[in-house]
TrEMBL record, chain B:
<protein>
    <recommendedName>
        <fullName>Dynamin family protein</fullName>
    </recommendedName>
</protein>
<dbReference type="InterPro" id="IPR051943">
    <property type="entry name" value="TRAFAC_Dynamin-like_GTPase"/>
</dbReference>
<dbReference type="InterPro" id="IPR027417">
    <property type="entry name" value="P-loop_NTPase"/>
</dbReference>
Amino acid sequence: MIAGIWLDALDDIARTCQEHGRGDLLQAVRLKRAHLLDPALTVLVVGEPNQGKSQLVNAIVNAPVCPVGDGRTTVLPTVLRHAEVATATVVQTPPPTPGAVAVAGALERTTVPTEQIAAGVAGTAGRRPGAGPAYVEIGLPRALLGAGVVLVDMPGSGELAATGATTPVAALTRADTVLLVSDSTRDLSVAELNLLLHLTRSHANVVVVQTKTDLVPDWRTVADRNRRHLADAGVPASLIPVSAALRLRAAATDDHALNAESGFPPLIARLRRDLTGKPDVLARAAVVLTARTVVEQLAAPLRAELESQRSAEESGPMTRLHAAQREADELRRCSIRWQNTLADEMADLLSDVEHDLRDRTRHILRMIDEAFETADPLVAWDTVQEWLERSLVEAAEANRRWLVERCDWVARRVADSFTRYGHGSLPPWPLVVPTETGEPLPEIERPSVDRFTVSQKVITGMKGSYGGLLMFGLALTLAGMPMINPISIGAGALFGGKSIHDEGKQLLRRRQATVKMAVQRHVDDFFVRVNKDSRDAARQAQRMLRDHFSALTEELQAGIVESLRNAKQAADTDAVARERRHREIRQRMTRLAALYEQAQQVAAAARPAPLAPRA
Amino acid sequence: MSGGWRLDAAVRDLLERALHVYRDDPRATDRLRHQLTRLDEPLRVAVVGGWRSGKSTLLNALMGEEVAPVDGSAFTWYEDGPQPDAVAYSTSHPPQRLTVLRSGTGMHVDLAGWRAGELRDIVVRWPTRSLRQVTLVDTPALGVDEHGRDPVLERVLRETDAMLYLTRDTHGGDLRGLESARESSVGQAAPVHAILVLSRVDETGGGRVDALLGARQLARRALREPHVDALCATVAPCSGLLGLAGRVLGESDFAALAALAQVPRAELEPYLLSAERFGRGQPPVPLDAATRSALLDRLGLVGVRLATTLVRTGCDSRAALSTELVRRSGLGELRESINRLFVDRREVLKARSALAAVETLLRAEPGPGTAELLGTLEQILAGAHEFQESRLLAALRDGRLGFEAESAEEARRLVGGDGDVLAARLGVAPDATAPWLWEAAADARWRWQERAEDPALRLAQRRGAQVVVRSCDGMLAELATHRSGSSSSLA
């Protein structure tokens, strides 16, 4: 009937585990339940190395089953159970074989000859290379074991945690009684006290066994000091001093007095009492511990969630709302920024492009001027005209190309304002700039230039020679020479030739000036036209960019407004949901507390029981 | 060879330079001056260990007299002096002389008027030969404080040159303290300053009579483990209790043991089962309870068992029994190890602790010029062959290298196991001429070079051979400088 109470409590715990969706805990609780219903009492023997753990086990069963030695002799845990005939088995998980699917929990049992137990426990016999964790199982025909006590001799180590005995989940399923072995040559160490604190948290029944009392004359003072240490550290464990050597000796000589002196009878009695009390007293204590572990494990995530919720209030939808608002402001700023950028850049662009074109045409003009400084338009016109046309077309193209490049650059500059909204905000490219001028440039017409015709030359020559002839003829008549004489004729010819030459030169000058004028006029026309085209193109580009980015801004704005609205909605609904979850967690916590309370009551009902036999 | 003088000189030079760098810092200067004076003082060997690990007993056994413990929470320094004398240093009072009471087997210091934990240091002067070159230090139990540091071990590392580290198990957490001391460069350079002592070995294995033999095997096994090898020069098993008993065994004690041995074994055995039975029982011998409990205090239960067995099997005089007890306790070997590895190499150890002190100072108080000094320090460490020699000497002593006896002996000699003088190292007459020395050194060098390259040898052996080769190289270099020096002086 009493068993029913703690079983109910345990089932409640299991149900709670299930509600919380903790399969691992549920499994552990189920194992614990099976374990508690099992009448056998598992006794775990732990402690630091060389404290006499194996010797203690040997002395309890009165047989040298566990090997003892100077160094580390126990490598594998040793499990002692009842058996009609003495047997020894190495149990291990088989090494993973390639190709075969590993079966969880598959164990391989190798029987070891009883004389090889020592080697088995040292991990040298019956072990397969690569095999997983192993232990040695020894069967012995002993009354104490027959009654249901199972002794587990652990390898001595400070790394007890590594065996899994102290991890909370594993601990739920483990031993009923833990014997911590410490020898009489010194007090309990800090490490041992820590281990005890750890053990008492997960095991209801912990006993400190102080061994080797035969070696030390003042073991009683050591025991007293140890009890004080235990009380100071708040470890609820009793201390039993024993001497394994005396007990084994007593068994060999069948000396009851010596056996009593060894201190073992109280220990055996304690184990027997635990065994009989297991379905009741021990089980209740175990249930309380289980409840505590489970409640701690279940409450931890809930508490963490509450904690995170508190911080989530700052990081939740409200933050998103604020972020959306900030985003809208940012977009507004961005919009002003890009418009300014566009306007400024375009103004710059226009003046730069104009200046560039001006520069190019100036350069052409200068070249023309230089060319016609010497060349005769009559001879060179065709070449020059061809060159001029080509240069102008080149200049116009270069200027246009530059314009396009600049527009592209401006577009990028403006698009930079949108980087935080992602890429791909550039307008569809290449920029559609009217590449050809509206109408073709007018051909430069050949300027009308004066030619120096033959008749003109004759007349001019005649004019010149007449003057010369007359001048020299008259002068020579004074010398008594006739008017027409060889000298005056020669001078006439000379003068005539000079006149023709001078006249030709003058005509050339006039022709050059005319041509230069004509070219200048043509280039000016060209400049005006091309410049107009460039301006138009630039404006068009500007308009296009503006349209594009305006559209983009509107799009973004729409998105942001949408998210703002969503955030606002979410903020409103989230507050409600959080409140609900909060209440839910609180309820769960309360239920867990109630569960723990219930387990405590089970223990309280059990508490008078252990007092009764003592009284 | 890199004789002690060279490392020594480098360390003195480093200290002087550090003094110059820290000339404006009176505290640092004090510490450096202190290190300089320590170089000329006796070697300081601390006995370190956990609670009840047998520190004071071992110290008594080493001194052969019962002088420890004085105070469980203070450092007790045992120095050589003309007559017994003890001075207490505390944090709150000026130094004060303590009363020393001589007893039959040692002394007792009167601590009346001092509260526990009030004293910081007690300096005991005691006339004994064993303290001529060594100052022994008894320390409080090791223990980690709340910051994860061990104040006692830190002070030991700071203020002493070498230590006997007592532990009862080479696997447990006991060694963690030593491991943490390896953080500095000097700490890593060579663990030549520690001997790991497996203490209280009489209690190993549940107190069997042959426990000491088992302990010796344990020590040998521990030495083969890399994590132990990296921490200490060697591992020595020792039962301080038996060793002390052997050294102070009186005639009356022997008489009592002889009386016990008279009783037939079967009759006596039940009384030797436990300490309590022996002390309070009624064994069939004419010994009163006080004598028996005195014996138990002196020898322990295992010691009583062992002593009676020994008396029965032929140790029929006090001298014979005490010799046998000392031999069995492992004390003799431990003393020999201390002499060979600590006392003979004291210059190296003192230089080592000076280097450690400088390193700590440089790292704690960096300033202009300290980086350069740290570089010099690392250079000294890298170049200091002495540490390698010390390690090799230790390895040769406990035979873990497995050289045959003759080679081991030669190697020991060559790396300075018989003395640091060239002639002693080369094993030739002290008045040997330079060419003779040269020939011997060159010959040894070739032989060991062959060993260092012999693929048939184990790696550890080849490494050992390399150390010997380098020692020979050092000797040749020294001879060469002498030769050129003398020729130039002739010119």
